[in-house]
């Protein structure tokens, strides 16, 4: 690893921070100004850093004053492309990088080793794609280019121009006592959004399967997440609680928003709003907002979390907080439809913190990961090889 390279970046980061805090001497300010004049990217860097500091000041102001309206305004400003950062050894750099973005980090340290690409074709990021399986075995392709408009027992199924599936149920007083269960399958490099007949909205992530009834009957609204990950905004109905089955577990709600992740034989449900009751091995656990229930090796834990870290994917962003390289690349593998091969097991244990837009060019993401000097990447078609 080139430690001299990182010492230069960290020193420059500290200088910029001191400049923001008004701690530089006149001579140091002139030196910084000369550096900014050397390259247009350097000048742009200082301007963006200054904007970030101003944004931080506004965030602090909103926290002290009109929290609701002010925070909504700040959130709009914060929705911008970001990046990965090696979090443990380069924390000083991470503060600047997370705030300013990938291009700014390159301005601080423009020497970047290119990612090795063996073939001309690059893995593409995922998009809206899924298929719908009816009880009869009939299949419909669901994406942004195709539309369907069909009836099944108890409901009308129709896709919007955006590709979202809308389920419209028949009247509640229908004499029908049964309804068909339908299945949505979202493949690798896919995502899908649907609106159920009761008004519940569901975002389904890559490599996921969900079963739902054509319409809800009886005293419950019961659906099943068979695999993968999904985010739910449940329409409130005190007469019909919403029940999500996940293998032998149940999540029961009236009206709330939450995320469920079952990737890699794990289980985690993160509550954003409202209240849920999770049943695990016949034991009930109540969750309040900003709490997450996880099951690891059969052990149930509940902890306070930032829900955005676990739900940002539905808004087009991946957020990682001290995530192992193995998990980071597993997430990318599902989204870019790639296979990851590690040359050494210890490479899986490096940790990263940062965020990334889901529709970014994969070369940019891998190139930034290489900036740590700990790993190198080689793309051979859909196979990503990770080495030292």
Strand content: 35-45%
By CATH, the topology of the largest domain is Jelly Rolls
Task: Provide the low-confidence segments as ranges.
Answer: 1-10, 77-108
| Count of β-strands | 26
Computed structural class: alpha+beta
* Level-1 CATH class name of the largest domain: Mainly Beta
Terminal CA distance: 10 Å
**Helix fraction?**
25-40%
The structural domain count equals 2
Q: Gyration radius, to the nearest Å?
A: 24 Å
Largest sheet report: 19 strands, mixed
Number of helices: 9
What characteristic shape results from the CA principal axes? Answer: globular
Q: Architecture of the largest domain, CATH level 2?
A: Sandwich
Mean pLDDT across residues = 78
Kindly describe this structure.
This protein has helices at residues 3-20, 26-38, 40-64, 67-78, 91-100, 102-108, 307-311, 325-336, 362-370, and strands spanning 84-86, 116-117, 127-133, 139-143, 149-152, 155-159, 165-169, 181-186, 190-195, 201-204, 208-213, 221-227, 229-233, 242-246, 249-253, 257-261, 267-273, 276-280, 283-287, 291-296, 299-304, 317-324, 339-342, 351-357, 376-380, 383-387. It is of the alpha+beta class and 388 residues long. The strands form 3 sheets. The chain has a 19-stranded mixed β-sheet that branches.
